[in-house]
């Protein structure tokens, strides 16, 4: 491997997924078939060439931190892409290393040479999905995941049985036996990730601006967000309205934005979802399109790229993408008009990777939180390291995801804050699932007793603007 050796990980831990054979030297077993990549959007050779092998990205890469393997680092994966471009076949081993990447983009932030690893891995994943046949069991698991998660109506149908399961006390019983993780790790992961469900009233089509209207804003309801965190969407709409935005929701017309598909190389599926969303908001006269889920926001900002070869949608997609804003981004851009009331609470803010690394949004949420009187903001150690959620990575790779989740949860609890705040439903579920494994709790508890409550940034702002008692956030 060219280039100076990078420092090894501080403490490698966890088990590599079975699908990732050890390949320290990158000596990949030859496979039948032609070169790894076809001509439809291969990883661009000029971007691969930008990597100077310095290794600065290695300590921020969660898979390198876990396993200490060069081929599970950004530099190693770029090396594999170069091999593919030089005509090497797409081997199981190569695919394993690409699949093991969380797509967290910490390496993009860390790279002093500006290597566009985001474009590289996205193009590579599309090639893998088209040109590689996975083992039958993995194909079945992926088929099940992609038949469920990008469909909010199907997810909402799970709410009833899930609420009944949670209310029955079965959840505690299942946890006590400890059998589920041993018998069915994927199911155990899904079970542990499911948040405590509350009522989910249907969002209105439109919410009028409070006071003089400053903007008309479309709002994404999302898949997991709408099914499992309806309170976050309701808070988002209220905050926007309080800040003078008329909010266009059109919940019946919305579907998935395609983020999950695009992050997993399912290009055509992602394009279909994108076209559908563009049609749902055509002629609504929106000035901005607001997103409160980090992974969705980063994909929506790339719609122009996703549909660039579609003559009917390319221009519309690019124009739409230019209007996309994360909630915190838009609120800072507009400036506050709604009065903030005191919230005496200590908050640990977690940078979701697709907000911090992929969109470069770190200061805005902090600025909004600091503007709330009596709120004390605390920083979490190693903020650049992913919590292990990464879309459906934690479902596909439950064991290493659990290790990353526990590492993040330990750092979160280490702040001693009463409330963990972040802007992504996946992170909330991942960290909430890890805290009890460390003996902590996300249930209401006295301060200092190893517990921490969780909330989205929108819910904190909403509580402050509406002058709610802080207990509403902590219970
Ligand atoms: S995206 Fe994240 S997991 Fe993938 S190579 Fe970069 S830092 Fe590592
Ligand atoms: S991706 Fe960037 S930081 Fe990582 S080895 Fe290449 S040039 Fe260095």
Automatic annotation (TrEMBL):
It holds the Pfam family Fer4_8. Gene3D superfamilies: Alpha-helical ferredoxin. Residues 11-21 have a biased composition (Low complexity). Its cofactor is [4Fe-4S] cluster. Binds 2 [4Fe-4S] clusters. Its EC number is 1.1.99.14. It catalyses: glycolate + A = glyoxylate + AH2; (R)-lactate + A = pyruvate + AH2. The keyword Iron-sulfur applies. Residues 1-21 are annotated as: Disordered. Component of a complex that catalyzes the oxidation of glycolate to glyoxylate. This is Glycolate oxidase iron-sulfur subunit. The lineage of its organism: Bacteria, Bacillati, Actinomycetota, Actinomycetes, Micromonosporales.
């Amino acid at each position: 491997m060219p280039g100076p050796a990078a420092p090894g990980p501080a403490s490698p831990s966890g088990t590599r997924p079975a699908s990732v054979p050890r390949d320290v030297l990158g000596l990949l077993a030859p496979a039948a078939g032609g070169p790894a990549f076809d001509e439809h959007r291969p990883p661009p050779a000029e971007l691969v060439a930008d990597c100077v092998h310095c290794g600065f990205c290695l300590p921020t890469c969660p898979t390198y931190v876990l396993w200490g393997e060069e081929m599970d680092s950004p530099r190693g994966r770029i090396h594999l892409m170069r091999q593919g471009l030089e005509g090497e076949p797409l081997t199981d081993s190569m695919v394993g290393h690409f699949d093991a990447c969380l797509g967290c983009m910490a390496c993009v932030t860390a790279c002093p040479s500006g290597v566009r690893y985001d474009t590289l891995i996205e193009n590579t994943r599309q090639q893998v999905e088209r040109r590689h046949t996975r083992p039958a069991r993995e194909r079945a698991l992926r088929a099940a995941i992609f038949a469920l998660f990008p469909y909010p109506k199907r997810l909402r149908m799970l709410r009833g049985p899930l609420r009944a399961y949670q209310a029955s006390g079965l959840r505690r019983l299942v946890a006590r036996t400890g059998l589920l993780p041993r018998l069915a790790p994927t199911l155990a992961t899904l079970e542990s990730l499911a948040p405590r469900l509350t009522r989910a009233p249907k969002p209105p089509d439109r919410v009028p601006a409070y006071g003089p209207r400053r903007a008309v804003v479309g709002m994404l309801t999302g898949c997991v967000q709408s099914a499992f965190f309806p309170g976050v969407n309701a808070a988002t709409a209220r905050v926007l309205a309080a800040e003078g935005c008329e909010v266009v929701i059109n919940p019946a017309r919305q579907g998935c934005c395609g983020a999950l598909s695009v992050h997993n190389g399912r290009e055509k599926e992602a394009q279909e979802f994108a076209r559908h969303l563009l049609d749902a908001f055509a002629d609504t006269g929106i000035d901005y399109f607001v997103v409160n889920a980090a992974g969705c926001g980063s994909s929506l900002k790339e719609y122009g790229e996703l549909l660039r070869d579609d003559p009917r949608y390319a221009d519309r997609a690019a124009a739409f993408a230019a209007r996309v804003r994360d909630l915190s981004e838009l609120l800072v851009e507009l400036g506050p008009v709604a009065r903030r009331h005191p919230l005496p609470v200590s908050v640990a803010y977690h940078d979701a990777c697709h907000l911090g690394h992929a969109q470069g949004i770190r200061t805005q949420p902090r600025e909004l939180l600091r503007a709330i009187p009596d709120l004390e903001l605390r920083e979490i150690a190693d903020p650049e390291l992913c919590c292990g959620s990464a879309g459906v990575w934690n479902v596909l790779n439950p064991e290493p995801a659990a290790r990353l989740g526990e590492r993040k949860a330990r750092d979160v609890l280490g702040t001693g804050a009463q409330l963990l705040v972040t802007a992504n439903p996946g992170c909330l579920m991942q960290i909430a699932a890890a805290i009890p494994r460390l003996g902590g709790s996300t249930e209401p508890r006295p301060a200092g007793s190893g517990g921490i409550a969780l909330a989205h940034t929108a819910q904190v702002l909403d509580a402050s603007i509406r002058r709610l008692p802080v207990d509403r956030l902590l219970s």
